[in-house]
Specification:
There is one protein chain. The protein is of the alpha/beta class. The protein has one domain: Rossmann fold. It contains ten helices and nine strands. It has a seven-stranded mixed sheet with strand order 1-9-8-7-2-3-4, sandwiched between helices. Helix 5 packs across helix 7. The termini are far apart.
């Protein structure tokens, strides 16, 4: 169902058709009334109950650029580093071609896939060991792709910082690349936390990845350490916007209280018709070939506007 269906909201409040970003042709929703209900809950709760959970590769970065240039994944940035051993890329490509089809196989149960993902990450860690490496190489390549963030990403992250909304960037890719791109794009504000796979070193040589291993199927808030500072920050924030480009990303908020209100936004680009039903069944809002942050920004704008009205009303009452 398109986003532009006209209807009165259940129980009053803001209506979907009053939100221009949600009435565009490329914006699709399975259940507009449910999206409407949750947006109104967000407005009641205000910024202090919000958190954002976002994938990185092809979610914060674009799925395509205007000039048709490819956007590398976070591991792709690492693989482009010149100092890597000669056989490294060939061996990692072999692993990719073996395990990637398993990762996206629509017929294999997830419990079975998990074992293969652990195998893939373990073998990748073994390959990424025993040679010297300098983070500045990643920084140099990442600097070429700061322009590859979705349009209005800077404004989106500025909105989140201004409103004090914790933002978790969850990536099954390489955290060193993720942090480098975000930092060089000037969006790695204090409210942004990156949970990903980070390189570790021993005696000046690469020694695989730090634990815990983050793969496609455990990329959710259950991996946040309950004693961590970030967990303390978000565990009471039960209004959540989840953003991703693959089906597995929709589960990134698993582990939050069952009473939470969650809007899941899916960016769909590849094989649109073949994937549409699955994305519509998984995400609340599906954005087809949308290379911007306009929809999540519009939700934040509504929350901020209502928050200001609430503060003004409280001020008037106290006079």
């Amino acid at each position: 169902m398109g986003c532009d269906e006209k209807r009165e909201p259940a129980g009053g409040g803001l209506r979907v058709q009053d939100i221009p970003a949600l009435t565009q042709d490329h914006c699709r929703m399975r259940d507009p009334a449910e999206v409407e209900r949750i947006i109104n809950e967000f407005l009641i709760g205000g910024p202090e109950r919000m958190q954002i959970v976002s994938d990185f590769d092809y979610t914060i970065t674009k799925q395509r650029t205007e000039d048709g240039g490819a956007v590398p994944s976070s591991f792709g940035i690492f693989n482009a580093c010149q100092s890597l051993p000669e056989n490294f890329k060939a061996e990692t490509d072999k692993l990719y071609h073996k395990y990637r089809p398993i990762e996206i196989d629509p017929h294999m149960p997830i419990a079975e896939k998990v074992q293969y993902m652990i195998e893939w990450w373990t073998k990748s860690g073994e390959l990424t060991s025993g040679f010297p490496f300098d983070q500045s190489e990643i920084d140099q390549i990442a600097s070429k792709y700061t322009h590859a963030l979705r349009d209005r990403t800077h404004e989106f992250f500025a909105d989140l910082q201004r409103l004090g909304i914790p933002t978790l960037v969850f990536s099954a890719g390489l955290g060193n690349s993720v942090v480098s791109v975000l930092r060089q794009a000037n969006v790695l504000h204090p409210n942004v936390k990156v949970v990903s796979n980070f390189l570790q070193f021993r005696d000046g040589l690469l020694d695989g990845f730090q634990q815990p291993m983050i793969h496609t199927f455990n990329k959710n808030e259950t991996v946040l350490n309950e004693t961590s500072e970030y967990y303390d920050l978000v565990h009471t924030r039960d209004h959540i916007i989840v953003m991703g480009d693959s089906i597995g990303d929709a589960d990134m908020a698993s582990g939050v209280p069952a009473s939470s209100h969650i809007i899941k936004i899916g960016f769909l680009f590849d094989h649109v018709e073949a994937n549409m039903k699955k994305y519509m069944d998984t995400f609340d809002i599906v954005l087809v070939d949308d290379q911007t942050m306009d929809v999540p920004r519009s939700l934040l704008s509504l929350i901020e506007k209502q928050h200001k009205l609430n503060l003004e009303a409280a001020k008037q009452r106290s006079l």
